[in-house]
Please model this.
Amino acid sequence: MGKFPYLRRSADAACFYVENPLGLDVRLFANESVPLERESFEQLFEFLDVARAVDDIRRRGIFGDAPASLDRVVLTPDFHKGSLVPVGTVARARHFCIPQAIGNDIEEAPYAYKSVEPVVDSVEEGHIAHKVARLWPLCTVKG
Model:
């Protein structure tokens, strides 16, 4: 772990604190034997910029009265570089969602899919977005 200067061992040795430019509470639950990649942390730090963007948007009143924030991130032992967000990243996003942060392995369990209508309705009711079109899925493509 010595090659990652932004990792600080917690007092109880159960995890590492990950120092980051935004000062967010980021914790990596892993021991010394878990292999880590620099690219994973680079991708994580890019992802954390979402917190800055949400703060900017909130200050402009776009979220209304909702105290939207990204205030904590937990990294699981399988933390490694993903396509857009590192695998093993769990982010506490309050009053907004990050679709790119949702795991891609759900496609392996088609019964886990649910109707998107309640999701779209809640996004509109929360004044996050407005419906502009209705789409019907024709098929699912994996690959």
Remarks:
- The helical segments are 38-47, 49-59, 117-125.
- DSSP finds three helices and five strands in the chain.
- Residues 106-114 have pLDDT under 50 and may be disordered.
